[in-house]
Amino acid sequence: MSAYERQMSGGTAPRRVLSHALLFALLCSTALVAASGNAAAFEIFGIKLWGSSEDEDADIVDPLRYAVTIEAPDADEDLAEKLENASALKDDEERPVSGSLGLLAKARGDRDQLVAALYADARYEGVVTITIEGKPLDDLPPDAEFSGPQPIPVVINIATGPKFTLGDIRLEGDAAGLAGADFGLIAGGDAGSGAVLKAEASIVRALKEEGRPLAKVTDREIVADHATSTLDVTLTVAAGPVAGYGDTTVEGTEKVDRDFTEYMTGLKRGRQYSPEEIDEARDRLLGLEVFNSVTLKEADGLDADGNIPIGVEVSERKPRYFGLGGTFSNTEGLGLEGYWGHRNLFGRAEKLRIEGAISGIGSNEFTELNYNAGIMFEKPGMVGPASKFFAGVSTVLEHPDAYDNFSVKGNTGLSYELDKQQTVSAEVALDYSKITDSFGKHTYLIASVPLRYVYDNRDNRLNSTTGFRALAYAEPSYDILNGSAFVKLRGEGSTYQSLDTASKFILAERVAIGSIIGAGLQDVPANRRFYAGGGGSVRGYAYQGIGPKDADGQPIGGLSLFETSVEMRIAITDTIGVVPFVDAGTVSTKQFPDFSDIQVGAGVGLRYITPFGPLRIDAAVPLNRGPDDPHFGIYAGIGQAF
Known about the structure:
Blueprint: H1 3-9, E1 15-17, H2 19-35, E2 42-44, E3 47-50, H3 53-57, E4 63-64, E5 66-71, H4 77-86, H5 88-91, E6 97-98, H6 99-120, E7 127-132, E8 135-136, E9 152-159, E10 165-173, H7 193-208, E11 216-225, E12 230-238, E13 244-251, H8 258-265, H9 275-287, E14 291-298, E15 307-316, E16 320-329, E17 333-342, E18 351-361, E19 370-380, E20 387-398, E21 404-417, E22 422-437, E23 440-448, E24 451-456, E25 467-479, E26 485-498, E27 505-517, E28 560-571, E29 576-588, E30 599-610, E31 613-622, E32 633-638
Helix pairs in contact: 2-6, 2-7, 4-6
């Protein structure tokens, strides 16, 4: 056994201090995460669209190929997968290293990362042995040369050892008063390095939430008792004084106004420090969409007034952007959209976006395609950092089955973030439209005041695994030309539950209900009535295909709506998933939904996870199909269904 292996197995010592090893485990984990973002070629569905292995290897001096075998006979399936994921040798096996020296360096780094992975699983007696061409790594000289046939054989043998649990837990210093709190350090509990480091961060966070920005761990003693396979933890913490915010300084701005960036943090000098406010300030700056990265850092000490200075470092994004998108359904046809935008129009994160779309391609006659276009403007920080002013003009020419519509709409309003999860908005809008439907031809001039409240605590808005989103919407409206008034109400909620620790099984549920009060069906413009059916609603049915119809079988819309959906999102791999689902909905001419006439669709979808959101393909059939309903529906787009 080498000296290194004796150190890892503990030698003859029954106990050993592991403080530095735990810190190294954290650093290795951080490095692994940081390294995972590099990519030299682009692949989708396993197909490389550009770049090649030869192109990526062209800059490698003296390329040397190797083949890795990982042997971990004592590891269960979950640990074996973690160890393989931690191995850079295995992850980069397809790419050669730079000569024998590069292979030696990679192997030594790999051993450290594998030991860190063992520590993360509370395996403090684990031993990692690496051989190259049959020779132990520690027996190889620094200038060893591997001249055998390539690929050079590399064998990693891992003896995991027993899994440790927590033993004696002691909090000392200013943390002594927190001993009764649950930071995840419980005798007999998880002794993994990640759990201990997470507990340290939680203790410091708890003290910082008291307004103490200088709180920190001043000493740690982590001792492994090999006789009992337990880990004793002693943490000493200094709380530091309560302090307010000092000066906020900003670095890294180029085209974005520096003073505006400071203003948008919302950190007022003298107000008591709060780590939650620091997090909110970071999220608010990122939400401006003008920065690639935002870092807020407290100073190492207080200023002369006893306040903590805050440093903000940012890197800017390119201000202009453009894009193309599309959706497809066998019942709704092909839809194409394009947009151009500017993120920083006047230097204070003002946004301008111009967009247009065409839909109904393949399902409508050429003269009855649907068109819409719009210009939108946003200005953040209008009445405080949490506010946003917005205005827009849009025009629509559409020909769904229910009506033909040409309209021009202008709106302006203000949104305000009550906190990280809650947002309210109010606007005024004026909508001129000419509509032909089952009741004839009509011209409307609708003035309205849309009001919205949103609560959203989802972990990921592109692909949620936990959390909840709720929407409450009210739109009082008055038809200036025809003298009718009505109020459109809508509520919607969706929830996401991870059924396992790895979030491979996600149960997603959605429910929506709506009602229009104050006017009869004929007095409400057809484009403001409720409809159901199609992608994003009840899949398997045609767009607007659910609800009351006229004598010709064309939908007329309704005054009330109810929809619900349930999906089981199952991850097959890290990028591919399948989604069985059931949707249901009803539309009624009454002001309250008719639950006795609910249409149900069911199907299965395929998801491919990308950095810009899941690519979605769904196929569904109507379970209580009517004579005018399709036999099936296929839908494709970007993003989850809800």
